[in-house]
Amino acid sequence: MGKLFDIDGPLMHGLTLIMHLVVINLLTILFCIPLFTAGAAFTAMHDVVMRLHNESDVAAAKRYFAAFRQNFKKATLAWLPFLFSILLAVFYAYFFTNWKQSGLGGVTPAKVGVFAAAFLIFIIYLYVPPLMAKFENTVGNSLRNSSILMVAYFPRTLAMAAIVLVIWTIGLLNIALVPLYVAFGFSIPAYLRAYIYMPIFRKINPDAFGGPGDGGAAGGFEDAESEEEEAGAAESRG
């Protein structure tokens, strides 16, 4: 019982994790307000989430700001096509729901095509922020690798999609839960998804988290943290 309340015990560890998840959720909401920065916000969130899974001492807010700055350009470039697709899907969803005015009722090939495309874009993007947070790569290769992983690990992809869709559907159907979603709406789904994608990253790059893996890469993955350390060493030598 004494260990439960120790500073390094499970209770304090759990409370610290909750605090970190609230902090990164609030920061993500803040940086998503200008929609074009949401990609960098999601990438920074996943950077911290992976560290929470893998490290015992994480300065969540400090690391979030560092990851946001570090990944801002490439994460924003990758996000903008998805943002456009989301806005287009919302427009079509509104158009199709007003079928009495538009003359389109019931299920049509156009409806199915639009929502199938929207779902495909959604599940591809599930991998983009964590890949950009963990691996140094170009925007094009990150998008390509996300598409490859989406197909190669399709059951895991569906599991991640289910986490996001179920949690947010519950929230949208119950307005009383808004305060809970302000605290955890983005961070909890991201934290749960990390249980699914981190083993994939370990298989792709055995050194990704310092754990075992079987090697193999989908387009060349290099640890972004290693790149950062190498750049710092080069600057100090200069």
Briefly summarize what is shown.
This protein has 238 residues and is mainly α. The chain contains eleven helices and two strands.
What does this 3D model show about the protein?
- The protein is mainly alpha-helical.
- The protein has one domain (2-233).
- It is built from eleven helices and two strands.
- Residues 211-219 and 229-238 have low confidence and may be disordered.
Keywords for this entry:
11 helices; 75% helix; disordered C terminus; mainly alpha; 2% strand; globular; 238 residues; two-stranded antiparallel ribbon
> How helix-rich are the residues, as a percent range?
over 70%
- Tally of domains: 1
Mean pLDDT: 83
Write down the Rg.
20 Å
Order of helices and strands: HHHHHHEHHHHEH
Annotation, overall tally of beta strands: 2
Q: Profile the largest sheet.
A: 2 strands, antiparallel
Task: Please outline the helices and strands.
Blueprint: H1 10-32, H2 38-54, H3 60-97, H4 99-102, H5 109-125, H6 128-134, E1 135-136, H7 139-152, H8 154-173, H9 178-184, H10 187-204, E2 222-223, H11 224-237
Antiparallel strand pairs: 1-2
